[in-house]
Structures are given as C-alpha cells and as structure tokens.
C-alpha cells in the first residue's frame, strides 16, 4: 500500500486507514482481530480509534491485538481525545477532560504514546487556549508524537493553528465525492499551515459503493432505525446523480464504484489518508484491493464536474 507524508512533517501513513468505530458494536472481537491482521498484511499502518467507539471497547480490543496480532512499531495510532466512554456528555475538550482521556486511552491501548492525538470537535464550553494547552502538554511530554484536530471549520482551524506554539498536523474531516464542502475553506486553511486532511466517510457513508441504487438493502445501515438518518442525506438529489455518474464511469473502466471513488479522493490535494470503517471482513478485502493509481484525466474531469460545489 502506498505510504504518504502527512502535511509538512516526516510522519508517513498508509493511503488507506483503518477506522475502528464499528468495533464492539457491529464488529466482534474476533472480527476486529481479523480486520487488523488483513489490514496490516496489505501494508496498512494508520489505525484510528476513540474513547467513544463502542464505549471504550474498540480501544480495549485494539490494545489486546497490539504486539499479539501486529507489532506496535508497525502501526501509526491515531487517537481522538476529549470524548467520554459513557454518560450523557460525550464531548469534553477541557484540559482535564483531554488529558484524562489520553491517559485512559494509552492505558487501554497498552502503549506509552499516540502517534497522532486529535482534539475533538470544538467544545463551546471550553476556551480554545485551554484545549490547545492540553495538546501542547501531550506533545511536549511525548505522550503524543504529533497532534491535530477533528471536524474544525476552516476559520476554526486557522485560528487554532495561528494561536498554537506547536504544529497542528491534521484536520480529520468528512470528505468524499458526495461531500466536497471542505474545499471551500477547510482544505485551504490546512494547506496554508502545512497540515493535511484525514478523510473520514470517503465512500459517502456507504452510498458510493452503489449498493443503495434503487433500493435500501435490508442488511445495510440505511435500513437501520439508528443509522438511517446518517445515510439518508446522500440518497437523493445531487448525491444520487453523483453516484449514478460514478457507477457509469466505473463500469466503463471495469472497476467497482468504491475503487473509483477512493482513487479520485486519494489524489485530491492535501489528503494524507482515507479512513475506512468496514463492518465485515469481505468489505475490507474489497476496499484493500483499490489501486493507488490516479484516475484518467477525462474520467476525473467528469467526476469533478458532476460533484462540483455550488457557487
């Protein structure tokens, strides 16, 4: 698998990252172990986790696999901080909340450092300088080799990067053919400060696989009362037209829609890695077969045009 530098740094990660959001919920412990083994065998290095994933089960599972299934030295651990494992308040970007969550995550993961530690979405109850102070402490102490943020708007990232006395390496945000909103200001802000994008939801919450065309499969997230509101925004209107164009183009290239969608995304400026959250081993196998080769210019231009942002 292709390796890439993350922003203006020496950190390298695999072009595809393994997300663990489904672990402990839709993916069993054995299934998670198989995913990690398959991912590492394919050359994957970036594994992303968070306290809120499975109420802490994802971190606990991953910690049990490290050095048993895959050596710690072969992984780039991306850990989201500032979120709780249980209780009604899910977000806490205070200095105490951030550093407590980091220590708890490292304990569960069985390691003394995160390769990349991320502040959560901006917490309206906490001043920015306090969140940044937690990142600085973790960075200076070595508990986090690099730091960044998640889901910051462009102006929020620019303000944080200009304020911090240390580099913010990434902004972890949603990005795909059906959601190119970050190109307005998030991506330019990251580029201006030498940071990169970690793209979550690179397959448009599953829509860009083509499986929702004309129907909602009974076993899919779109058929779940819990997940349906997450998928529905991409099932009609412009996202539907983008998906149809993608499927037509992929058929002409003898590719699966998800392959073409990922190849398009991985060659967008500023993207370091696309984070995949597979629910089954078969889904992950198919995704890991994606080539890192660029999309032919005529096809890329068509996809650019059909998915272009409105003025």
UniProtKB/TrEMBL annotation:
Q: Sorted alphabetically, which InterPro entries does this protein's record hold?
A: AKR_Detox_Biosynth, Aldo/ket_reductase_CS, NAD(P)_OxRdtase_dom_sf, NADP_OxRdtase_dom
Protein name per its UniProtKB record? Aldo/keto reductase
Q: Where is the NADP-dependent oxidoreductase domain?
A: 16-294
Transmembrane ranges, per UniProt, are none
Show the coiled coil region(s): none
Q: Which organism is it from?
A: Arthrobacter cheniae
Q: What does the record give under GO molecular function?
A: oxidoreductase activity
Gene Ontology CC, one term: cytosol
């Amino acid at each position: 698998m292709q390796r890439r530098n993350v922003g203006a740094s020496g950190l390298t990660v695999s072009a595809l990252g393994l997300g663990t959001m489904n672990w402990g919920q839709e993916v069993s412990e054995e299934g998670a172990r198989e995913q990690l083994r398959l991912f590492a065998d394919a050359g994957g290095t970036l594994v992303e986790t968070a306290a809120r994933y499975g109420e802490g089960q994802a971190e606990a599972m991953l910690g049990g696999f490290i050095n048993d299934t895959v050596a710690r030295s072969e992984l780039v651990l991306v850990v989201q901080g500032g979120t709780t494992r249980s209780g009604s308040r899910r977000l806490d970007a205070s200095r105490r909340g951030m550093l407590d969550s980091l220590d708890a995550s490292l304990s569960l993961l069985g390691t003394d450092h995160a390769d990349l530690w991320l502040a959560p979405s901006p917490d309206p109850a906490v001043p920015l300088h306090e969140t940044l102070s937690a990142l600085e402490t973790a960075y200076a102490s070595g508990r986090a080799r690099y730091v960044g943020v998640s889901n910051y708007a462009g102006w929020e990232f620019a303000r944080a990067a200009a304020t911090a006395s240390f580099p913010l390496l990434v902004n972890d945000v949603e990005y795909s053919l059906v959601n190119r909103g970050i190109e307005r200001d998030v991506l330019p802000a990251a580029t201006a400060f030498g940071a990169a994008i970690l793209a979550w939801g690179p397959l448009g919450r599953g829509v860009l696989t083509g499986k929702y065309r004309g129907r909602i499969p009974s076993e899919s997230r779109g058929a779940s009362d819990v997940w349906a509101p997450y998928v529905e925004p991409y099932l009609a209107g412009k996202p539907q037209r983008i998906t149809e164009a993608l499927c037509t183009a992929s058929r002409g290239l003898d590719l699966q829609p998800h392959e073409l969608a990922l190849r398009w995304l991985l060659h967008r400026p500023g993207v370091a890695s696309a984070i995949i959250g597979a629910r089954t081993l078969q889904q992950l196998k198919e995704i890991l077969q994606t080539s890192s080769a660029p999309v032919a210019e005529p096809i890329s231009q068509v996809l650019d045009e059909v998915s272009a942002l409105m003025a």
